[in-house]
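Run log, item B.
One chain of 496 residues. Sequence copied directly from the ordering sheet:
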Amino acid sequence: MKRTRVLSTLLLMLLVFANDIMAQNPQGVNVVFIGNSITYGACLSDRENSAPPAVVKRVLEQKGVGEVNVSNLGRSGSTTVDWLPSTGTLFNKVVDVADKYVQDNRPLIFSVSLGTNDSAIEGPNGSPLTAEMYGKNLYTIVDTLMKRYPKSSVIVNYPIWYSSNTYNSARYLVEGQKRLFGYNAEIADLVWKKNRAKDRGRIYEGNKAVWELFKNHEEWYVRENGQAGVFLLHPNERGASELGKIWAESIYDVWRHESPEVVTLKSGSQILIYKPVSGKAKKGIVVCPGGGYTFLATDHEGTRLAHWFSKNDIAAVVLLYRMPKGDCKVPLTDAAEAIEYMRKHSDELGGYEQVGIMGSSAGGHLASTAATHLTGKKGVDFHILLYPVITMELGVTHKGSHDNLLGNNPTAELERQYSNELRVTEETSRAFIFLASDDKTVPAENSMRYVNALLKCKVPCTLHMYPTGGHGWGWSDGYFYKKQWTSELLRWLEQF
């Protein structure tokens, strides 16, 4: 009876574990398309199979996403005014579909493509809309989606080109064309603003190149007779296919970011796996989010970084390490297991030879701990530190990280043990460190002490200190020096 009870317990645990993993690795995706006649597939003889959303479905399934459900809510002649939640018409159709989609476990993505009709000189509801009004309406639509479906993602697509003589039942012409192009800045601004609001859902921008791409391929349009001659507005079957492929790539990119493979390590901690998009990895990196050893800033210091690495031919895993809770060895144990996993699974993750570790803030302390405490194959070939906690010396360290890791009254010996500037040797791997000089949360002296220790031991190191930014910017699109630090990091990784 005892043996039976044990076996039953083990079976139950396995089932719970399996269900948990399945819940975090949903197969497939649900996509709701909000748009106008271009989304709808106007002028196509077989709209059901040829409209861009239908193409998206086929492309995503070919990419191995799993079951793809698409809902084409494109409505001919519609503007952002028509899609405002306050109108109680078209937006209600979105709610009806999305409420059903959220019942299953698949990611929910909204693909929004509006603006063509807003730009018209006269005809569609509300037109012509200034860039400011277009941006305001679009913000309202996206904001409402994010609030109602906080776990969803929203892609805002840039509009495609139309000819300057476009004039059907509505009048567009040169004025409309210029106005439509001007909407691009509003879309970019919307994405930037929403990504700064950490309490919101996730928002992404579509492919910026679609305007010029379609402008340079007039053969992708239906030639329509209008009041100002033959005009180009609606994609033909070829054009709809190309647009669908572009939208599919954006959706696939978001899906990969939002739905990584989850692996549970022996310790019980988990890693989120981001394989290189190309299939071949130059390097492998364990990414450690910060959070003061009390929580994990998984998004802007974890998954967004890992996703970016994967798009640059680097395999990355985000380590969801356990909090110390009285045992300072716990985070390092998890980091060691993640490094071991990366070395053992190199072949299936892209074939890299070098494994590194990256960490932000308290995650930077964990990364530098791994770099200085673990040796040989258990250690790392390089490490990357973003505004890191380094020392445990009171007055210089981050007090919260210190107390959460070591306790409120640690011994001086324990503080020295986890003051990583004291642990650097000639065997320590090369390092890349970046921070802002005005960081008031984790003093810059942490990084300076570490750099001096590396230099003393003749360990190659690179330091970038930006004049502003404070603490915790991570993958923020709003950070002024984002292009600088990301390009410098990629350049550094190419050097060895």
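Observations after the first pass:
- Confidence is low (pLDDT under 50) at residues 1-26.
- The longest helix spans residues 173-196.
Flagged for discussion on Thursday.
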